[in-house]
Design brief:
By secondary structure, this protein is of the alpha/beta class. 44% of the residues lie in helices and 17% in strands.
Length: 1013
């Protein structure tokens, strides 16, 4: 019969799937063979047992000749209802004295011929239009996949050509028309249920009527959701041609699908207390790709996996860890070594590096689900633990970011062992900028530990810590590295990425932020972005007119006005009013929503906390505020710590913030990365955010929370520092793929070294002598005096100019950072660089750099006062649209850095103040003189107002004073509306401008009242 024209129907899709699977070796089952009560293909079920295990069947027949089949089926049914289908497939079925295998496992490279032969006897079948209900016999499901007669997977099909989609119609069919009480749809009776059409695939492991929750099972397209074009067929063909190919399906059952209870409060969980985990496509795909590459290429490669937040990295890491301990080299006839090595696993141990306590438990629980051998996991807190774990047969060893350097030390001494290191570095520590533990592990006190550190500097996250640890030691040939991150830095791409023919670097695997957002696993944090611009006017408080460096003075003045009480109070009031009106007052997340205030440094965080607490008290303290920062800090002569301000131990802050009692958290650097709080919906930013730090910080809001009904519409960002273009530039780099344009030009190290050598701080022979002592393991009391000699020359003996000192120290830091990054990956050894590196590491903290300009700037700040402050909203709830192009990074430190300031000019204080006011009042229609006149005039009229003394000046209740002051100001502004039209429109049309202007006005009124008193 000739082929008929296509009707683009669901039936045609069904025909194609069945024909394709039969061509792959599947049996086409008969719908009439389906047993509705036990959810089996009764013909193939008995055929499999009779063909493979007749001896075991005979044991049952001997004592139950008339009902032996019923006996087996009832036992099968009870075990599945208690433990699920996965238990039966992995552990078999015991009936009386008989033991049945219901799935023969896939053989390993080292498996016997019998194991290989048994695997070939498994029966894989696909049956269409299965009538599954005894009560409603006309109801059928489109397809059911069976293994050895056991129902394993169900399918509902739709055709988009008939205006029917998987996303809507197939999902609704499962939710509304597939009763989970039917045996076929009982929880854990099947491993997974697929809803698909010719475009997309969705899956669920638990049917629960209208509450059924489906996940996408799509490959992704153009960095986003959906599936790519398939020139050879349907976009969804990968499901039946690749995922459900027999070997792939058995691999999924043995190494991915797991049934477990994640609720620690349930001590003896029943089947319905558990969760059945089936991997999402990208999780399955990355693990399979990594395993294939490892088995083809052996030990010693590096892999970068760029998987977005919401990708389920925890499960991906645990699935990979378990499979790596069973990885074998693929046979290769070209090498004799493979013939003997083929029987041995590739890795002696798999080491997982993380700082997440939950991942530790997850790995342990997951492995127990997969492995027949218990007790194969250990923790390594110190180097001796690693050796102990290996000697006791531990295959998976978990360690932390902070212990990682010791682990590397031990590994370097075990050249006869092979390791896989899985690095979960994207969830950074909740500590501050730099970890003391990591610095101690590296043997050097980092200068940023001191009070001279720049609070505005970029946070050192776990990516940096891992890189630093590896940098100190050449990457070992007997170790494979697998790095997981959502936001790779340039150094991470260079170290772990795949080098392309054009010299660029790319990740091995990608699951993008765009895809995670479009698939609903994370929320779009920049879809509702509001920005503000501040306006300042300062005045001189001294008669003299001293000169200062213009550029540095402008920066110092900006920092000064940002930190004043007036500025912070105004912004804090805007933040709190927004949170009260739009978050707390709207009962978002069913009344559980929270916010975070991100500040520039610890002193500013403390002042914000104080201002917010004060404003909250005026509102009756409906909730509480927390602050988070590391160590102690003096502000206005008072010593502050996180525990003393919050009233409890620092370790309790995270858990306390999770309660409804606390709604706002004020931070500087702490909690900006790795802090997973799904109830966060609002962020108030008063800090420069750039690059990866912007993405990591704002991504604290992106966690989805179906439990609370969290949606993108619930997210708010109010940014007082950055523009929307700043944020777009940062996110564009990580929205889809991230690449590195080229490798670091290592020749810059020659230039830096020449510059450093020329200053006379050390002589070449002294560097060699010190290195010999250092690598000869001489004690600290021998090394320290050598470094002190170099430091003394720099600080005193050589009488170096301030600029020369600054440049030397900057370039010394650059050399250490750049050489440390590339030392682990350059194909040759530079002995001179290595020696200098170990001299500079302890020398840098001893180099004293002081500038007379710093003292001058202190004098500058003592010579001015903030006269006027106002704030204007520049973008309201803007959706920042990102580009789909891959983000490209460039290597940092590509040129020697130094003190280059050819345009340095000095101006007198009056000119500096004039320029500052002009710049920071720019685009505000009133000139500084006009604004000053307005304010002075308004102050005078308020003081002369009939209600000023009675309702404001003589009232103690702060809330009443606020209200009455606002009433007086509004009355005056309204009365002047005809002669001040522009000002009136701005005042009544922009609530934030109104609040800031009124705040400045009140400061002047109260100041004058204080002076009179």
């Amino acid at each position: 019969m000739a082929n008929q024209p296509s009707t683009f129907s669901e039936r045609e899709l069904e025909d194609h799937i069945v024909d394709s699977m039969v061509s792959m070796g599947y049996i086409q089952g008969a719908s009439n063979d389906f047993d509705k009560r036990f959810a089996i293909d009764k013909v193939l079920f008995w055929q499999f047992l009779q063909d493979t295990q007749q001896d075991e069947l005979d044991k049952i027949i001997k004592f139950s000749p008339n009902d032996w089949q019923d006996k087996i089926l009832h036992r099968l049914d009870r075990v599945i209802k208690k433990n699920g289908i996965l238990h039966i497939l992995k552990h078999g079925l015991s009936v009386d004295d008989a033991a049945f295998n219901l799935l023969y496992p896939a053989p390993l490279a080292s498996s016997s011929q019998k194991v290989k032969d048994n695997y070939q006897t498994n029966l894989f079948s696909i049956t269409r239009q299965v009538y599954y209900s005894a009560d409603e016999p006309r109801k059928s499901i489109d397809l059911v996949l069976f293994i050895n007669g056991l129902a394993l997977i169900t399918f509902e099909l739709k055709s988009t050509h008939k205006s029917q989609t998987a996303r809507f119609n197939a999902l609704k069919q499962y939710q509304n028309d597939r009763d989970p009480k039917e045996p076929l749809f009982n929880f854990a009776r099947c491993a997974v249920h697929f809803a698909l059409d010719n475009q997309e695939v969705y899956m669920t492991t638990r049917l629960a009527a209208a509450k059924t929750f489906f996940l996408p099972f799509n490959k992704g397209s153009n960095g986003g959701s959906g599936n790519p074009l398939n020139p050879n067929g349907f976009k969804t063909a990968y499901l039946w041609q690749e995922v459900l190919a027999q070997d792939s399906l058995v691999n999924l059952l043995n190494h991915f699908v797991r049934l477990g209870c994640d609720d620690p409060d349930i001590k003896n969980p029943k089947l319905n207390d558990k969760t059945l985990y089936f991997p999402r496509y990208h999780q399955m795909n990355v693990v399979k790709r990594l395993m294939t590459d490892v088995q083809e290429n052996g030990v010693g490669k590096r892999y970068l996996i760029q998987h977005s937040a919401g990708s389920g990295k925890s499960n991906s890491i645990t699935w990979l860890a378990y499979q790596l301990i069973e990885a074998y080299q693929n046979p290769n006839n070209d090498t004799a070594i493979n013939a003997t090595e083929i029987q041995k696993p590739l890795y002696d141990s798999v080491i997982v590096v993380t700082d997440r306590r939950l991942l530790d438990k997850q790995i342990r629980d997951n492995i127990n689900q997969f492995s027949e051998v218990k007790g194969i996991i250990a923790h390594a807190e110190r180097s001796s633990d690693l050796r102990d774990a290996l000697e006791s047969g531990k295959k998976i060893i978990i360690t932390t970011i902070f212990k990682f350097p010791w682990i590397l030390d031990e590994i370097s001494e075990m050249a006869d062992k092979k390791f896989a290191i899985l690095i979960d570095e994207a969830h950074s520590s909740q500590g501050g900028s730099v970890s003391d533990d990591m610095n101690k592990a590296l043997g050097v006190k980092d200068e940023s530990d001191t009070d001279n550190s720049n609070d505005d500097g970029e946070i050192e996250d776990n990516q940096d810590k891992i890189n630093k640890a590896i940098e100190a030691r050449k990457m070992q040939g007997h170790v494979s590295y697998f790095g997981f991150t959502a936001t790779p830095k340039d150094s991470t791409l260079e170290k772990f990425g795949i080098k392309q023919t054009d010299g660029s670097f790319e990740p091995f695997d990608l699951y993008s932020m765009k895809q995670a957002i479009q698939e609903g696993f994370i929320l779009d944090v920049i879809s509702n972005y509001t920005t503000f611009k501040s306006y300042y006017q300062i005045q001189k408080t001294i008669k003299d007119d001293p000169k200062f460096d213009t550029n540095k003075a402008q920066k110092a003045l900006k920092a000064y006005v940002e930190h004043t009480e007036q500025t912070i109070n105004t912004k804090a009031a805007i933040m709190l009013d927004h949170f009260m009106d739009n978050i707390y007052g709207k009962n978002r997340l069913n009344g559980h929503a929270k916010g975070m205030v991100v500040t520039q440094n610890i002193p500013m965080a403390i002042r914000y906390y104080q201002a917010l607490t004060k404003h909250l008290k005026e509102k009756g303290n409906p909730f509480k505020i927390l602050i988070a920062f590391s160590g102690s800090k003096k502000v206005d002569g008072i010593e502050y710590t996180e525990p003393t301000m919050n009233g409890f131990e620092e370790s309790k802050t995270k858990d306390k913030f999770d309660t409804d009692e606390y709604r706002l958290l004020v931070v500087a650097n702490k909690y900006l990365t790795g802090f997973d709080q799904p109830k966060l919906t609002a962020m108030y930013v008063d800090k420069k955010l750039k690059g990866v730090q912007a993405v990591q910080t704002l991504s604290r809001l992106n966690r989805s929370a179906p439990k609370y009904g969290k949606k993108t519409e619930d997210l708010f960002v109010l940014d007082f520092y950055n523009t929307t273009s700043d944020i777009k530039a940062a996110f564009d780099r990580y929205y889809t793929a991230t690449t590195l344009s080229e490798a670091t030009d290592i020749n810059v190290l020659h230039e830096i070294k020449d510059n450093l050598d020329s200053k006379g701080v050390y002589e070449a022979h002294e560097v060699i002598e010190y290195a010999d002592l250092f690598f000869g393991n001489e004690p600290m009391e021998v090394l320290e005096p050598k470094i002190d000699v170099f430091a003394d020359r720099f600080n005193d003996t050589l009488n170096l100019a301030d600029e020369t000192k600054i440049e030397f120290k900057m370039q010394a830091k650059q050399f250490v950072k750049l050489y440390g990054r590339i030392a682990a990956i350059i194909p040759f050894n530079m002995v001179d660089w290595e020696r200098l590196y170990w001299v500079l590491k302890p020398l840098i903290p001893k180099l004293n750099v002081q500038s007379t300009e710093d003292q001058a700037l202190d004098e500058l700040l003592e010579s001015v006062n903030l006269n006027t402050y106002a704030i204007e909203r520049t973008a309201l709830g803007q959706k920042i649209t990102l580009t789909d192009d891959a983000g490209e990074l460039t290597p940092s430190n590509s040129n020697p850095i130094g003190v280059y300031d050819p345009e340095t000019t000095e101006d007198v204080l009056d000119k500096i103040i004039e320029d500052f006011n002009k710049h920071w009042f720019e685009n505000w229609h009133a000139t500084p003189e006009e604004q000053r006149f307005k304010l002075i005039n308004l102050v005078k009229r308020i003081q002369e107002h009939r209600d000023f003394d009675y309702k404001y000046n003589n009232i103690e209740d702060e809330q009443t004073r606020n209200m009455e002051f606002a009433n007086m100001v509004r009355e005056i502004v309204v009365s002047d509306r005809r002669k001040e039209v522009d000002f009136y429109k701005k005042f009544v049309g922009d609530g934030n401008f109104q609040m800031a202007f009124m705040h400045s006005l009140r400061m002047l009124v109260d100041r004058e009242a204080g002076e009179k008193r």
